[in-house]
Amino acid sequence: MLVNSTHAAELAAAARTAKAWPFEEARRLAARIDAQEAKSGQAKGPVIFETGYGPSGLPHIGTFGEVARTSWVRRAFELLTGRKTRLIAFSDDMDGLRKVPDNVPNQERLRADLHKPLTEVVDPFGTHPSFGDHNNARLRSFLDSFGFDYEFMSSTACYKAGLFDQTLLLVLAHYDAIQEVMLPTLGDERRQTYSPFLPVCPRTRHVLQVPVLSRDLQRGTIVYRDEDGSEHETPVTGGRCKLQWKVDWAMRWVALGIDYEMSGKDLIPSVELSTKIARILGATPPETLSYELFLDAEGAKISKSKGNGISIEQWLTYAGPESLSLFMFQKPKTAKRLYFDIIAKEVDDYASLLAKYHEQSIGERLENPVWHIYAGNPPQEAWPLSFALLLNLVGAANAETPDILWGFIKSYAPGLNPDDHPALDKLVAYAIRYYHDHVKPKKSFRAPTDKERAALEELAASFDALAGENDPEAIQNLVYEVGKKHQFEPLRDWFKGIYEVLFGEPQGPRFGTFAAIYGVEASARMIRHALSATGDQITSI
Prior knowledge:
Elements: H1 8-15, H2 21-40, E1 47-53, H3 61-81, E2 85-91, H4 107-111, H5 131-145, E3 151-154, H6 155-161, H7 165-173, H8 175-182, H9 188-193, E4 197-199, E5 212-216, E6 221-225, E7 231-235, E8 241-243, H10 245-256, E9 260-264, H11 268-280, E10 287-291, E11 294-295, H12 312-318, H13 321-329, E12 336-337, H14 342-357, H15 362-367, H16 369-373, H17 387-397, H18 402-412, H19 422-439, H20 450-465, H21 472-485, H22 492-502, H23 511-518, H24 520-532
Parallel strand pairs: 1-2, 1-9, 2-3, 9-10, 11-12
Antiparallel strand pairs: 4-8, 5-6, 6-7
């Protein structure tokens, strides 16, 4: 973790009272660890955080959110306590393939491997030994691309290497107690066949959902009835069986000594069951956080099958990862709408927080999301123009390439250029793509009212008289004066009219700054063009 040693004591002191949610989680975890050590009389080694991944599908925006959020709690905990930590990214790659995903090639070939462990299913892409290996590689590449610090662990490798053997024998020893927890949560039919153990058939390699007929604690085996009706005895260790996932989750917490894990609100019942099972196995379950799920623009739950959300690739087409991190950071326990219109706001909110950061006290910095996003070492870069302003410039200039937009920017501020301001250069490119794909199609221009027309005509004439002026404050004051003269009350109705008539949107950045960059002469021409539009022309100003 990047902490300046000269400020370590001040940072640690500030962390004890910081209200940002990762510090609240860190204090809760620290209290748990302290209580554990007091009870056992032994010092604990590294504190272990975990995130889980189901490799039947590719990593997605939710994967990013879970690892990022867990990493923020981890860093807050390190600062608060000075303890060493680990983050395990665990892949449930021994699960049986239950259905063929819609978004992969060679689906017929995959159907032949249904019910096999994902690490024994053919890779439909032909690049790895198995489908599980392919998706695990994608996960690691995905996490590495964002610079996450983690240790990858494979369920298949852990089972086969015997890492879980001791805990699996504990599950066998507490079989009846675990059944008492699990069976009441199941339907009548499922109760008749449910067992925590899923044998891997040596003949078909299928992960079997079959009842256990008998158990031998001394031998560490179970007897089960195979799909063909025959009875077989198998050890529960060495990768010959895996566990039903709720029991598996608890077993993993115990075997790996997990101290902290977060998951979606939809898994709260599973967390509760796994917590009970971990206690049955004689362990203290980890601290957990249940985060809210994402909603679409209409407030409906995001569904991968419906495609009503945003993929991480789509977000990064229009904005940098720091804006996505900010979206994930804010209010994890509140349901948030995840749709394209929020991207511009997140970009500008990030720029505002970054600008504030370098002027803040140590305590204030720990409350600022950019401290968490950059592990206490955010960049010194400045974003002199907002994303919202750039979007209006793209529309007004009908810019198709960054060069066009940079022409206006350089005219306004000769000291700005792409080489010295790479962050702004990226923002320009993002703005052009975002405008043409998501702003322009939704624009809704309207004709001005008589009152607005008179005020806009005077504003255009006033801009003519200001030829060459590029002071945003002077221009903004002029816009205010025109609005007051024409008796707009409240004055925000004047600006709302400007944006609806000129930009086809109900709001936007400061109009004075826009006019300063676009040029007062060009702004006057834009106003007169909008006022001269009639009929269908209004919809395509």
